[in-house]
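Lab notebook, bench 4. Still working through the backlog of constructs that have no structural model yet. Next entry is a single chain of 299 residues. Request: give me the structure tokens for it.
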Amino acid sequence: MSWIQARLHARKEQVDALENALLATGALSVTLMDDADQPILEPELGTTPLWDHTLLLGLYDASTDAEQLPQQLQQAYQAEGGEQLPTCKIEILEDKDWVRAWMDDYKAMPFGQRLWVCPSWQQPPEPDAVNLMLDPGLAFGTGTHPTTALCLSYLDGAVQGGEHILDYGCGSGILGMAALLLGANFMTGTDIDPQALEATAENARRNHIDAQRYQVYLPEQTPALQADITVANILAGPLRQLAGDIARLTRPGGLLALSGILAEQAEDVRASYQPWFDMDEPRLLDGWALLSGRKHQES
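Model written out:
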């Protein structure tokens, strides 16, 4: 089955009216995308910020009259208070098994000296390595993003065996599960999204990790603990706000790794943790930073 797609290049103030026009003319879905390489990082809670230049994609059933659609969109846009319809392109999309295509492209990846992250539908390329089998479609963490890659490489070198790991903002559980496979004794995971807790448990089962070796919690339910290694791959703003909580949950002498931080944000985040930790110089990858350190013995 084919689909008809309308592409509209809009300014921020046009978006609401254009979205309504797309839906009024029968669009089955409307997607908003950045049209000028303008990232929006860490929006305030409860807000949905838009890009100054936004690309709207309206997807229609194949039976839609593609020749008449621009005129219909113009009329619907005017009914919403708009004037001249912005640049619009109508195209035919051939049907494709997008899930299968994505699965074919996703390959096993090495991190550090010991660890591989492997999609669950493939055989590990290094059977004798530490292989974390992951279903990347499940939730939130695959290893492909530089921030996750930085954390995994850090854990490959930091985990010596027997540690208690705190994965703060665990997502799919990729960091905590990797630490357990590398030899850590126990992992505590916390996340604000209940789906993340389910994803972590599912990935633990997939990797045959005993349920006695990990626990996952919502943040307000996380028990008092003293982690040997704390990892948090979230965002710079929350990391600054959580500095005291993360320090409290890390034992004196314990290790810390923070990511989800742009390179230009690294010094501000680093300063937030220096009251409790001796912080190392940032590790950088593709414009992202990992901050590591060791908690003061007297803290």
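Notes after review: Residues 146-158 form the longest helix (13 residues). Residues 3-95 form a domain with the Alpha-Beta Plaits fold (CATH 3.30.70.260). Flag for follow-up if needed.
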